[in-house]
Amino acid sequence: MPVNSEYNILPLTRQWRKEASVKVFVIGGTRFIGMFTVQALLQMEHEVTLFNRSGPKLFEGKVEWIEGDRNNVDQLTRAVKVSAPDVILDMIPIVEKHAELLLKAARGVVPRIVTISSMDVYRAYGKLLGIEPEPDTPEDTPFNEESPVRSVLYPYRGPEPRSEDDPSRIMDDYDKIPIENMIMNDPDVKGTVLRLPIVYGPWDGQHRMFEFLKRMMDNRPAILIKEEYAHWRTSRGYVADIGHGIALAISSDKAAGEVFNIASETALSTMEWVQLIGKAVGWKGEIIITGPESTPAHLDIQMNTRQHLFADSKKIRELLGYSEPVSQAQGILRTIEWESENQPSLPEERLAEMFDYASEDEVLRKVKVES
Predict the structure, then answer these.
(1) Around Cβ 309, how many Cβ atoms within 10 Å?
(2) 186, 214, 293, 309: which is deepest, by most CB within 10 A?
(3) What are the percentages of helix, strand and coil residues in the chain, rounded to 5?
(4) What's the mean per-residue pLDDT of the chain?
């Protein structure tokens, strides 16, 4: 495993010039992307107030904290008035109601809201899922902030609503498009929208690197990737770099009224991504590309891989001077170190399903015989 990289610290290699100290009211801020964003804001010497139910965690003594529930409009309104910030940063808007309540609390008190969105708003993402018309005609990539968004809303809503006791019930109403529309079109509050890619790094609750890293840690002789998925390209971003970009957008008045993509300049294919991880850990195995008949069921990725998800991030680089403070190699090393020390706690049956090495070995035996 790599050397100790102090993955919870974002080392700045230069002094970042800010226009002025900003009072920032952060909804969330104690998990993954929010944690690194708060860290970047503090390094830029901004004043930070966290509004959540769990407390400041790593930032004890460095930030103000107001306990409250964002879904309670009275609590949210009181907290905003007490804090009287220059900017509200909403790290966790999930449904349209979140934007509605936030605007109600902010009007007449706060001049600007910065909200975190996703590249899943683009029509390209809808075609990736196969829910947009003409999914066999891919959207051009890289797409920019002016590219078309989905025409089909609520991408994770099924034909039947989830039950009320389903912990994923909120995903029936998840969509960043209505949230963006409300934030960017309010007559009294200026908005800024930041569309994020796949984000990796320490404290990633989704453990996006785990499926490949575990196989390398288990000394698998090969990693199988279905051909279409092997060549599929998507934008990614290391969490500290993403947090830095969010902090820049908060720091600059130039960001008011703007939408930005934040992502690495190069979109890696799945195969290239696995190769980088393998190189970082010194894995000596090989990547084997499988076809429709030879791909094990648990590795058969179900999405329209003809549609790449590659964003152009030129706007934030040119307008706000964004660049990544952490190199790609260092970001991957820090992620590997954290993932190797914090493997997800999953039921045995789920692990057996995800890492069905018997099925993978059967494919490898066939490949060996045919060669």
Answers:
(1) 26
(2) 309
(3) 40, 15, 45
(4) 93
Q: What is the pTM of this model?
A: 0.93
Query: Which of 199, 247, 202 is closest to 40 using CA atoms?
Result: 247
Q: Which two tokens stand for residue 133?
A: 């018309």
Smallest CA-to-CA distance from 239 within 273, 288, 211, 205 is with: 205
Other CB atoms within 10 Å distance of the CB of residue 79: 20
Query: Cβ of 223: how many Cβ atoms within 10 Å?
Result: 22
Torsion sign across C-alpha atoms 135, 138, 142, 146? negative
Phi, psi of 4 (to 5 degrees): -60, 125
- The CA dihedral of 350, 355, 361, 362, to the nearest 10 degrees, is 40
Query: What gap in Å lies between CA 226 and CA 302, rounded to an integer?
Result: 11
Residues 6+ apart with CB under 8 A from 296: 224, 290, 356, 359, 360, 362, 363
Question: How do 233-234 and 268-269 pair as beta strands?
Answer: antiparallel
Residues paired with residue 309 on neighbouring β-strands, in sequence order: 234
Burial class (CB in 10 A: 0-12, 13-18, 19+), 345: exposed
pLDDT band at 5 (very low <50, low <70, confident <90, very high): very low
**Residue 205 pLDDT > 80:** yes
Pick the closest to residue 37 from 106, 79, 90 (CA basis): 90
* CA angle centred on 330, ends 324 and 334, rounded to 5°: 115
Residues found in the chain: 371
3-state secondary structure of 340: helix
Nearest to 54 by CA among 43, 39, 69, 40: 69
207 token code pair: 């453990």
Q: What is the rounded CA–CA span in Å between residue 97 and residue 90?
A: 13
Query: Token digits for 106?
Result: 């902010």
Give the residue carrying structure tokens 């605007």. 103
DSSP 319-334: HH----SS-HHHHHHH
